[in-house]
Hints:
signal, SHSP domain-containing protein, mainly beta, 6-stranded mixed beta sheet, 2 helices
Amino acid sequence: xxxxxxxxxxxxxxxxxxxxxxxxxxxxxxxxxxxxxxxxxxxxxxxxxxxxxxxxxxxxxxxxxxxxxxxxxxxxxxxxxxxxxxxxxxxxxxxxxxxxxxxxxxxxxxxxxxxxxxxxxxxxxxxxxxxxxxxxxxxxxxxxxxxxxxxxxxxxxxxxxxx
Length: 163
């Protein structure tokens, strides 16, 4: 799988409205991801993407940068996504520990084969489960030249505005 396509795909920010941040006892986090491509021969890392995602514990978050192919209306079915999709959830235990479940899917779409009526997407999925890295970044190597860096922090509580 080419990591080069991630440079275009994995960028952006998922925001949570302030009204949701103030509800319930769920904790809010800011997660910073950095996706790197290494070149061991040149002893150099290149940043492919560095999105920031706002997430609430216990609630799924997702981010898609790429596109979608709609199903044929005659048949229905599911949408085919391509590009980079990030999905995850932060889970908190009763004893105060926090765990991050994260899945990153990198995929491409092939041009449709009109004669065979075939639409194809293909790619790789990387799934991670780890303690949420608060305070210091966590670095994970995948494939031969990929590095994922994750840093998380508690979000500032929403404050009420007065006029």
